Amino acid sequence: MDVEIRGLTKAYGSTLAVQDLTCSIGKGEMIAFLGPSGCGKTTALRMIAGLVTPTAGEIEIGGRSISGLPVHRRNIGMLFQSYALFPHLTVAQNIAFGLQARKLPRDEIARRVREGMRLTRLEAFADRLPSGLSGGQQQRVALARALVIEPSVLLLDEPLGALDKNLREAMQMELRQIQQRLGITSIIVTHDQDEAMTLADRIVIMRAGRLEQVGAPAEVYGNP
Ligand code: ADP
Ligand code: ADP
Fold it and tell me: Which residue, among 144, 137, 136, 132, has the nearest Cα to 96 in the 3D structure?
């Protein structure tokens, strides 16, 4: 298994946001954390990203514990509903940002930025600012920016939540195709059952901080 989560727990005072979450994610697999608002999905994802410190539990990626590692050492790509692009940087500059921070050679950065723009069909927008792009295009920039660092895991926090229904469905397909083509191990947080069923190989259903059920879409939502 590529990602191993064991006994992951987060308490905020007397609130157990996540309680004893244990699950495994295979290499190249796309898992959805699904459940109603407040069930602990985002907290679980943020602990994997290193943005929230667990109260208890262990997280391994590729057989190595990442519990002690700061965010920038985890080599994790993240996508948020809000895109979180840099407004004063062009599309290419936004995609290049994490590569420049890692001090990769110039030609390697240029190669990866071109590849990222090709994968997300943004070549024609390289020199545009985010404000000149549609919501779907902005989210593709954020996706390219996350992918060019060649992350070991991609974490997606309600990434399509701000898009209207038609665009959301188109982006689900696109996201799934890119994820499968790259074979990148991914976790998506969503409260949308249809989205989880479209995108995920397996669904982790959460309720009140706990894992309630886990299985392939047909197993957790199969005919009774
Ligand atoms: P979801 O992503 O499923 O909507 P969250 O992980 O955001 O759920 O929240 C789970 C629970 O933890 C909720 O009861 C929420 O109010 C609580 N919670 C989340 N973040 C904090 C925080 N920073 N401080 C206190 N309570 C929090
Ligand atoms: P620099 O930081 O060298 O002044 P820019 O600010 O123009 O360059 O772009 C930042 C990064 O984005 C550079 O590393 C460059 O490789 C990449 N980049 C910029 N424009 C393009 C483009 N049209 N195609 C591919 N890569 C680009």
Answer: 144
CA distance 117 to 92: 8
List, for residues 30-63, the tens digit of each pLDDT value. 999 999 999 999 999 999 999 999 999 999 999 9
Q: Cα–Cα distance between 197 and 80 in angstroms, integer? A: 20
ipTM of the complex: 0.75
- Atom 14 of ligand 1, nearest CA residue: 38
Ligand nearest to the CA of 116: 2
Tens-place pLDDT, residues 148-160: 999 999 999 999 9
Q: Are 22 and 58 in contact (CB under 8 A)?
A: no
